[in-house]
């Protein structure tokens, strides 16, 4: 028995679709991995240009040896109070370096990235920003990436 | 999640520490860790290096242990921000 009365009728309620699966298998143990940090939290060097809080698809490179007190946040989409007290609560760069010293990971990547997520021009993020960051990480031979966002 | 997916597509395995895990999964994140934190302190309470260390370390371990795309690894660390 068919319960369909009108063919092709769609819900008036917006139902978001989950995009197709992307998946790269892990091929080495953690202690052999050079891991990069990437964050949508708007982290950058204090000497860098701030993000445009109204929407910004650009990104900033954060060298792996940057002292955490030389980092800051410009992001208009969340409460910056915690991250202004301690950048590590959104960008755990000191924790990553400690884990590298302990031998949990091989090392923190020489290049890490900050951008301002949570909105902006989705098309540009998809077609330009994302692939550009991915390309630089690939060129550096990074084994894995830890992100903070969402 | 857009950027995470781009990196994963380029052939580098990724994991994201999310404060809003259902949103992240809905947007097609391959691997997610989810401590009990507010947006803005995904890696743990400010000036609490031990909590940050455990969240960071266990997220990295989840990168290796998660075998199914879209899987969320819940982490038992809680930070309630004082607003």
Question: What is shown here, in short?
Answer:
The complex is a heterodimer of chains A (150) and B (83). By secondary structure, chain A is of the alpha/beta class.
Provide a count of the helices of chain B: 3
Question: What does the overall shape of chain B look like?
Answer: globular
* Percent range for β-strand residues of chain B: 15-25%
Q: Which segments of chain A are poorly predicted (pLDDT under 50) over 5 or more consecutive residues? A: none
Largest sheet of chain A: 5 strands, mixed
Task: State the secondary-structure class of chain A.
Answer: alpha/beta
Tell me the total number of β-strands of chain A. 7
Oligomerization state: heterodimer
Instruction: List the strand order in the largest sheet of chain B.
Output: 1-2-3
Rounded to the nearest angstrom, the radius of gyration of chain B is: 13 Å
Please write the string of helix (H) and strand (E) elements of chain B: HEHEHE
Q: How much is the average pLDDT of chain B? A: 96
* Number of H- or I-type helical stretches of chain A: 3
Using the CA coordinates, give the radius of gyration of chain A: 19 Å
Distance between the termini of chain B: 27 Å
Which features characterize this protein?
heterodimer, A: 150 residues, alpha/beta, five-stranded mixed β-sheet, two-stranded antiparallel ribbon, globular, B: 83 residues, three-stranded parallel β-sheet, 22% strand
List the helices and strands and how they pair.
The complex is a heterodimer of chains A (150) and B (83).
Chain A: E1 34-39, E2 43-45, E3 59-63, E4 71-73, H1 81-85, H2 93-102, E5 107-108, E6 111-115, H3 122-139, E7 144-148
Parallel strand pairs in A: 1-5, 1-6, 1-7
Antiparallel strand pairs in A: 2-4, 3-6
Chain B: H1 2-9, E1 14-17, H2 21-26, E2 31-36, H3 49-65, E3 71-78
Parallel strand pairs in B: 1-2, 2-3
How does this structure look, described?
- The complex is a heterodimer of chains A (150) and B (83).
- Chain A is 22% helix and 19% strand.
- By secondary structure, chain A is of the alpha/beta class.
- Chain A has one domain (30-148).
- Chain B has one domain.
- Chain B has three helices and three strands; from the N terminus they run H-E-H-E-H-E.
- In chain B, strand 2 (31-36), helix 3 and strand 3 form a beta-alpha-beta unit.
- Chain B is globular.
- Chains A and B meet through helix 1, helix 2, helix 3 and strand 7 of A and helix 1, strand 1, helix 2 and helix 3 of B.
- Strand 7 (144-148) of chain A pairs parallel with strand 1 (14-17) of chain B.
